[in-house]
Amino acid sequence: MIRSQQGYFGEFGGRFVPEILLPALQELETLFGGLRDDPTFWQEYLQLTQEFSGRPTPLTPLRRLSKELGGANIWLKREDLNHSGAHKVNNVLGQGLLVQRMGKKRVIAETGAGQHGLATAIMSARLGLDATIYMGADDIERQYSNVFWMRQLGAEVVGVETGARTLKEALDEALRDWAASVENTHYVLGTACGPAPFPELVTYFQSVISIEMREQAMKQIGQLPDEVVACVGGGSNAMGAFSAFLDDTSVKLVGVEAGGVGFKDGEHSIRMLPNTGETGIAQGYKTLFLQNHDGQLGDTHSIAAGLDYVGVSPILAHLSQTGRVTPESASDNEVVEAFKLLMKQEGIIPALESSHALAGGFKRAQQMRSDQHIIINLSGRGDKDIFNIAHAMPQPEWAEFLAREAERAKANAQS
Ligand SMILES: *Cc1c(COP(=O)(O)O)cnc(C)c1O
Question: How far apart are the CA of 304 and the centre of ligand 1, in A?
């Protein structure tokens, strides 16, 4: 497992936060430092994920698709089969255990597309914690189905009306809350980013993915895979899929970022390829950020809401700089093709985020030999995201159905 040096991975990482938050981050670091090597704590975490989230998730061979594409044998690590439909629940369940140990009763989180907010609301309901979720007002409009579920699960969802009314403003608001409530409140960070110790802590919980993957590969394939591929938003599912293989130099690790619609500013969310992200400090840590000429955070685009982010895990920034992780990108169009192919050939409906890993992985598999093996991390399922996916692939029948459904909902609410 990768370890930071005082919160740094090479030149990236660190902790750049207002003084008032330092004690809480130090408390978290000390607690995590004392638990990370304790096998009974890991066992407690595994038991929670087994009882509640269906772990271990399977390693599924794609026999038909591998034959159709030609090249390597393709396998999927099925994080889509977690409770709530994605890998995010691994991290929040782990942080829930830390919250219990700290004796705190309340958690807060910020969420863009709503997936992390939903996972946090689910964990809070399960563990009996109060949850407040900050979300940009525009994001609430775009992702209303997640808001609906968060509220049903008992979380308070606060719409943030300032600025561009999206993730960045929600983050500022959540940090303001935390500064005022840090005595009894834990901030649940959703990906392997942010101030230390979060990148390392989130990676630790998500590493359950590659620990299982390694064991399953030995059992089902009889050897380690030649390549492991994951999509990269903030980097948590990728670090989860990579971390147990970091010392296995025969295993190539490939992170696929959102290539969007082009390479101009604002058309993509690629941060690790040449001429994209630049070293900077924002949102509490140092990493490769997409930036404008004047050093302001840049605009991003992706067909997948979960990959639409300006920064990237400092651990991945470091590993891509040292060459251990190979960065790649997939365009929106390639993503839609891979999405359709997996559905039609294998009967699995992937998330649009995960379809980036599919697009990158399928392309690589075709360049590989038939005795080689590639594992693609399927970070989430798509059927829960029907509104997003229908938005990405507009169809008249769906629009007409929604119009009729709106009429029915209105009539129902009035009666
Ligand atoms: C949130 C999300 C991602 C991106 O987040 P990472 O931290 O990069 O893993 C990827 N896939 C799915 C299904 C998601 O919900």
Answer: 9
Of all protein residues, the one whose alpha carbon is nearest to atom 5 of ligand 1 is: 233
Q: How far is the CA of 218 from the centre of ligand 1 (A)?
A: 26
Low pLDDT (below 70) residues in the chain = none
pLDDT of 143 reads: 87
Taking only the tens place, the pLDDT of each residue in 194-234 is 999 999 999 999 999 999 999 999 999 999 999 999 999 99
User: Do 155 and 123 meet the contact criterion of CB atoms below 8 Å apart?
Assistant: no
Please give the pLDDT value at position 388. Answer: 83
Nearest to 366 by CA among 61, 64, 71: 71
Contact residues of ligand 1, CB 6 A cut-off: 86, 88, 115, 191, 231-238, 306-307, 351, 353-354, 379-380
Q: For the chain, how far is it from start to end, CA to CA, in angstroms?
A: 58
Q: What are phi and psi of 226, to 5 degrees?
A: -80, -35
